[in-house]
Every structure is written in structure tokens, then in C-alpha cells.
């Protein structure tokens, strides 16, 4: 990514501005009476927010006044952007599917997809790992750690096991 | 009763096959649970607790202590192998342990982590036996202002782990401090950044944040990289040598003592101790510049600091009846179930039982070495699994683990979100370690800062009111000055 420091500075400063001018007024409930300013619930986050603005500004300005270097990552995949975007999409769908239909089925599909995307081509291995791991973890947490992992759509099938 | 008579009674009380077996079993269970992402040591101790109800008091308590000690070491296994620390303290081990594993030196890192854990555990146990009374009174001298100055000193490590990205490191730490403020305000009980969501009332759980920040960005970044053939490393697959051990010994001993002192202070825990030990090792080591890039001494320092607290946290529990953390609170429960009330009276009424527990605790250090050594050869092979298989598997482990901590999908969402944040930080060369340190130490810093001001009615001079405060301010100034001096000195000269 080019101009990393500029982007870093802008993001840090932007976050600081967001905290001081939006998040604190909207998200911190102040008590009616505060004995000393330093005891106010917003005192400490505001201090951090201001520090972020200053730090971000310095980081960004240093980049503006310094010559930008270009660097190439020799290990970068030729389709890095595409692959990363697909993986982010996979994570988003997986996260949503887990909340909607339990852990096992989405994990089987997500694991198989992630293995394929990573370059594994042995279908038998993908099938074994994708089936054994989600079920294995489900039973480990349920039977040994006594933590019920939501089975979602598969719950009726697993009942009583 | 004289000392030798008490000791004789204690040996008689301890010398049963159940005690010897259950200490080892506890260490084994703890190591196993600690090595699973999402399974924390308090969780493992709590799971084992019901099984101790029907056991004799010494056996039950030793089983729990074995789980505790095994869990502390087990947490470092995932931190080293897959960059998914199971505890905040183990995240310090990941800073150098994971880069070592990536170079194929997982076994070497695991070996040193084990040796550091065992030595620190042993020193901590000795301190517990010899200095329980003295350390308990020192620990009681630590009020809010002293704890605040101690945390301030611990935070100086941020400059150390930021490498050549000092300003970005400070920015990263500020974001960590900010994230730690989410939840109910400690003094007024009002909402801070919760926006009405009950999941946020107790703040963000540190495990999903740790996993998201450390393990997920590596996995995401993998998909943007070519599968690089691993470099031929002559140290690949080889364990730590005597020379490695000798090189790390100073850091291990120093970290152990840091752990003992901080562990005796209720409420401090293993993370500040691990970071402080790491920080001191980095400052004094000739390999200081290599810390964070895969330095064996870094692993040793973090692990000794982390494990040095193990015996010491028992000091306020046994001597004063004050549990220093969640685990000792559970162990306090176990004492009470067996009609024992930790505190000064316990040393009068049940001295033989206390000594029997001490004997079992010493045995647990030996078990830790034995069980750890037997398992390392097998466990270290995980690092040899091709990344195209390992990373997708780790992803699923992380998702199940994040859920298991609080049984809530919310934690899984936090982990995914932190993964995206961590990936962005990775791409922008913003160091993640300062974020993590600040996120872990932030609540302690703020709570002690505000509690001190509440005590002093807003007078800031409370932060200079005791010798301990002055000592830590002095150490902080020295640490900052040394960091600045290092930064200004040309590399070739240093």
C-alpha cells in the first residue's frame, strides 16, 4: 500500500476526531454532578482522543514532507486483491451464517471453501478435515467442556448423541 | 508443635498415591485446556472444581493447583504455534514465539518457554513457602496510586515493541486504551460507548480481541501471499540447547522475581508481569533490537514473568484470605467447600495441611517439566503443517474458541471485526503489540488513576505520596530516557 504513513496518520487523526466530536457526546452518559473534572467518565477517553488527533496529524504530516518510497512485495500473490476480497466475503458470509444457522454446517462449508481457496486440491482431504473438525469441536465443547455450541439446523439430528 | 514435627505430619498427609497422581493429572488437564484457543485457565479450573468436592481437601486443592499451573504453560503453546494466545499474558509470549515458529524453530521456542515456566514456577513456589508473610505485607502497601505508577512503568514497553514505528506505536496504544474504556463507568456506573447494547456493558472480552488482532490478520494476509517454500533453517525441528538456556537464564531469573513481586499484589495478574519482564529483558539484552522478530530471550522473559506469578498469587490468598485473581478466587471457593478459611488463622490451625499443599506445589513444577517435555516433540509438529491446511483449520478453531468464552455470538463478531482492524494495521505497518498492551493494561491504569483521585479529593499529589510511587516514577523516567537515547544513537554505534 502506497503512502502508508499518510493513510495511518489520517485514520488515527480521523478516529480521534470521531471520538472527541461524535462518540463522546453521543455515547458517554455524564452524571448530573461530577466532583472533579478528572473523575468524569468522558475525561480519560477525551484525553486519548486528543492524543490520537495529535499523533495522527504528526504521522500524516511527516509523510507529506518526506519523499514517498515505492516498495514491491516479492511474496505478493498475482491475484492478491481478488483472493483477499473473496476471503473477506467468505468471513462475512460465515459470520452471518453462524448466527443464523448454528456453527456446524456453516463451519463445514466455510472450512472447505477456505481450504480450496488456499490451494488445497485433494478433495478427500478437504472432505475429511471439513467434516471431522466442526463435528469434533462441537462434541469436545459439549461433552468435555460442558459448553453447548449451537448446532442450528443439525440440532434435531444431534439430539441425544 | 515444632517445625520438624509439622513437616513430618505434612509429609504423612501428602504421601498418598491420590495426591501424587492428581497433581500430575491436574498439570496434564491444565496444559491440554490451555493449549486450546478459547479454553482459558479459569475455565479449566472451574470445570475441574466439582470433581474435587468428594476428595480430601489436600487432594482437591492440589488437583486445582495442577490445572492452574498446567494452564499457564499451555496458553503459551497456541501463542507460539498459531499466534492465538489463550491469555493476555501469553500474548506477550506470542510476540517472539510466533516469529520463531514461522522460521521453523517452534520446538526451540516451546522448549525455552517450558524451561522458563518451570524455573519461574519453582522460584515462585519457594517464595510462597519462605516469604508468604513478608510479601503479603509488601503487597498490602500497594494502594491505587502505587498500582497506577506501576502500570505507568509497565506501559513504557510500548516504546520498545513499536520498533522503528514509534509514533504509529503510540497511536496504536491510544486506540487500545480507547477500546478498553467501552462498558460501564467504574465510578458512576453510567454507560460509555455501549449505545444501549447490553453485550458492551461489561466491556470487550480480551480473548476475542486478542485472537482477532493476532491470529486472524495472519490468516487473511496468507490469502494475499504466494505459498513460499520455507527457508532451510539449520535450527528447524531442533530443541533448545544448553547454550540457548544459558543465554536466557538471566532473563528467566529476573522475570521470575518480577512475577513473584507482582503476583503477590492482588488484582495485578500475569499480564503486567509478563510485559514488564519482557520490557526489562529487551532493555538489558545485547539482542534487544531483535525482540519482536523472533528472539528466544523474549519468549523466556515473557514466560518467566507469566509463570512467576503462579505461586505468588497464593501468598495473599493463604496469608490474608484475599484472592488475587479469578483462579485464586475459585481456589478460595475450594478451600471453603472443605471448611477451610484461608488467612492468618489457617497457618495456626492447619499448618500441616498448608505444608502438605506446599509439597504438592513443588511436585507440580517437576510434573510440568516432565509433561511439557513429553508433549513438545509431538506438539511442535503442528508448526510443520502446510499453511494451506493450517490456516483454514485455525480459523475454525478461533471461531469456536471465541464463542466458547461467554457462549455468545457477539464475541465471534468482535473477533471478526478485530481481525479486519488487525489486517488494516498490518497493511499500514501499524504495530499491533502496543494496541494489545494498552488494551490489557488500560483498565487497570484508568481505574487506579480515578480511584486515587477519588481518595485524594482531586489532589494529584497523591501520585507522589509514597516511596513506592517515587520508585516507579524514577524507573519510568529512566526507561523513557533510555528509549530516547537508543532512538537517537546511530544503529552502527549501538
Write the layout of secondary structure elements.
The complex is a heterodimer of chains A (161) and B (494).
Chain A: H1 4-27, H2 43-64, H3 80-101, H4 104-118, H5 123-144, H6 155-158
Chain B: H1 3-14, H2 17-34, H3 41-48, H4 57-82, H5 88-102, H6 106-140, H7 144-155, H8 157-161, H9 166-179, E1 183-184, E2 191-192, H10 206-222, H11 242-263, H12 270-284, H13 296-307, H14 309-312, H15 314-320, H16 326-337, H17 344-349, H18 351-379, H19 387-406, H20 409-427, H21 432-455, H22 467-488
Antiparallel strand pairs in B: 1-2
Overview of this protein structure:
The complex is a heterodimer of chains A (161) and B (494). The longest helix of chain A has 24 residues. The relative contact order of chain A is 0.09. Chain A is 68% helix and 0% strand. With 161 residues, chain A is mostly helical. Chain B contains 22 helices and two strands. Chain B has a two-stranded antiparallel ribbon. In chain B, helix 2 crosses helix 18, helix 3 packs antiparallel against helix 4 and helix 7 runs parallel beside helix 22. The model of chain B has no long low-confidence stretch (mean pLDDT 83). At the A-B interface, helix 1, helix 2, helix 3, helix 4 and helix 5 of A face helix 9, strand 2, helix 19, helix 20 and helix 21 of B.
Distance between the termini of chain B: 60 Å
User: What does the largest sheet of chain A look like?
Assistant: none
Radius of gyration of CA atoms of chain A, rounded to a whole number: 24 Å
Topology of chain B as a string of helices (H) and strands (E): HHHHHHHHHEEHHHHHHHHHHHHH
Low-confidence parts of chain B: none
Overall SS class of chain A: mainly alpha
**Residue-averaged pLDDT of chain A, rounded?**
88
Q: Shape of chain B from CA axes?
A: globular
**How much helix, percentage-wise, in residues of chain A?**
55-70%
Number of DSSP-assigned strands of chain B: 2
SS content category of chain B: mainly alpha
* Extended strand count of chain A: 0
Q: Taking Cα atoms only, what radius of gyration of chain B do you get, to the nearest Å?
A: 22 Å
Order of secondary-structure elements of chain A: HHHHHH
Helix content of chain B: over 70%
**Main beta sheet of chain B:** 2 strands, antiparallel
Low-confidence stretches of chain A: none
Amino acid at each position: 500500500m502506497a503512502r502508508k504513513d499518510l493513510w495511518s496518520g489520517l485514520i488515527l487523526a480521523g478516529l480521534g476526531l470521531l471520538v472527541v466530536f461524535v462518540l463522546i457526546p453521543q455515547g458517554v452518559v455524564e452524571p448530573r454532578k461530577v466532583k472533579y473534572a478528572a473523575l468524569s467518565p468522558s475525561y480519560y477517553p477525551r484525553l486519548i482522543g486528543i492524543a490520537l488527533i495529535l499523533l495522527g496529524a504528526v504521522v500524516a504530516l511527516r509523510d507529506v514532507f518526506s519523499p514517498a518510497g515505492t516498495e514491491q512485495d516479492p511474496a505478493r500473490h498475482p491475484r492478491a486483491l481478488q483472493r483477499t476480497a473473496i476471503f473477506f466475503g467468505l468471513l462475512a458470509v460465515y459470520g452471518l451464517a453462524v448466527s443464523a444457522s448454528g456453527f456446524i454446517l456453516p463451519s463445514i462449508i466455510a472450512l472447505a471453501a477456505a481450504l480450496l481457496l488456499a490451494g488445497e486440491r485433494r478433495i478427500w482431504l478437504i472432505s475429511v478435515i471439513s467434516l471431522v473438525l466442526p463435528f469434533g469441536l462441537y462434541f469436545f465443547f459439549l461433552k468435555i467442556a460442558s459448553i453447548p455450541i449451537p448446532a442450528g439446523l443439525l440440532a434435531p439430528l444431534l439430539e441425544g448423541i | 508443635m515444632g517445625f520438624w514435627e509439622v513437616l513430618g505430619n505434612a509429609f504423612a498427609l501428602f504421601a498418598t498415591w491420590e495426591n501424587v497422581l492428581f497433581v500430575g493429572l491436574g498439570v496434564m488437564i491444565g496444559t491440554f485446556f490451555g493449549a486450546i484457543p478459547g479454553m482459558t485457565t479459569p475455565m479449566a479450573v472451574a470445570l475441574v472444581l466439582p470433581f474435587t468436592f468428594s476428595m480430601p481437601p489436600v487432594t482437591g486443592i492440589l488437583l486445582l493447583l495442577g490445572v492452574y499451573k498446567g494452564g499457564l504453560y499451555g496458553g503459551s503453546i497456541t501463542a507460539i504455534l498459531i499466534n492465538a494466545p489463550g491469555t493476555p499474558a501469553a500474548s506477550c509470549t506470542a510476540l517472539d514465539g510466533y516469529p520463531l515458529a514461522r522460521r521453523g524453530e517452534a520446538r526451540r521456542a516451546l522448549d525455552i518457554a517450558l524451561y522458563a515456566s518451570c524455573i519461574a514456577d519453582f522460584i515462585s513456589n519457594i517464595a510462597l513457602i519462605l516469604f508468604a508473610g513478608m510479601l503479603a505485607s509488601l503487597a498490602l502497601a500497594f494502594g491505587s496510586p502505587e498500582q497506577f505508577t506501576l502500570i505507568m512503568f509497565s506501559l513504557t514497553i510500548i516504546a520498545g515493541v513499536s520498533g522503528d514505528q514509534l509514533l504509529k506505536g503510540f497511536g496504536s496504544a491510544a486506540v487500545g486504551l480507547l477500546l478498553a474504556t467501552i462498558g460501564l463507568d467504574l465510578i458512576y456506573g453510567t454507560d460509555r460507548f455501549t449505545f444501549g447494547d447490553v453485550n458492551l456493558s461489561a466491556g470487550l472480552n480480551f480473548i476475542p480481541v486478542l485472537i482477532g488482532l493476532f491470529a486472524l490478520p495472519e490468516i487473511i494476509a496468507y490469502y494475499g501471499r504466494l505459498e513460499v517454500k520455507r527457508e532451510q533453517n539449520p535450527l528447524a525441528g531442533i530443541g533448545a540447547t544448553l547454550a540457548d538456556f544459558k543465554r536466557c537464564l538471566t532473563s528467566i531469573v529476573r522475570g521470575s522475581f518480577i512475577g513473584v513481586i507482582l503476583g503477590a499484589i492482588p488484582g495485578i495478574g500475569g499480564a503486567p508481569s509478563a510485559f514488564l519482564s519482557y520490557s526489562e529483558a529487551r532493555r538489558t539484552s545485547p539482542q534487544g533490537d531483535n525482540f519482536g522478530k523472533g528472539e528466544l530471550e523474549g519468549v523466556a522473559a515473557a514466560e518467566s514473568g507469566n509463570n512467576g506469578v503462579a505461586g505468588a498469587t497464593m501468598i495473599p490468598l493463604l496469608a490474608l484470605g484475599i484472592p488475587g485473581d479469578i483462579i485464586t478466587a475459585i481456589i478460595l471457593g475450594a478451600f471453603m467447600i472443605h471448611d477451610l478459611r484461608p488467612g492468618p488463622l489457617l497457618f495456626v490451625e492447619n499448618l500441616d495441611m498448608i505444608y502438605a499443599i506446599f509439597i504438592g506445589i513443588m511436585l507440580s513444577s517437576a510434573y510440568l517439566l516432565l509433561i511439557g517435555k513429553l508433549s513438545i516433540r509431538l506438539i511442535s509438529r503442528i508448526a510443520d503443517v502446510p499453511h494451506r491446511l493450517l490456516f483454514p483449520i485455525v480459523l475454525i478453531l478461533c471461531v469456536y474458541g471465541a464463542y466458547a468464552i461467554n457462549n455468545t455470538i457477539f464475541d465471534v463478531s468482535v473477533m471478526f471485526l478485530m481481525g479486519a482492524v488487525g489486517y488494516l494495521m498490518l497493511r499500514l505497518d501499524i504495530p499491533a503489540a502496543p494496541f494489545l498492551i494498552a488494551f490489557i493494561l488500560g483498565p487497570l491504569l484508568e481505574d487506579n488513576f480515578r480511584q486515587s483521585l477519588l481518595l485524594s479529593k482531586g489532589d494529584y499529589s497523591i501520585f507522589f505520596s509514597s516511596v513506592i510511587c517515587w520508585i516507579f516514577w524514577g524507573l519510568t523516567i529512566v526507561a523513557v530516557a533510555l528509549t530516547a537515547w537508543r532512538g537517537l544513537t546511530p544503529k552502527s554505534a549501538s
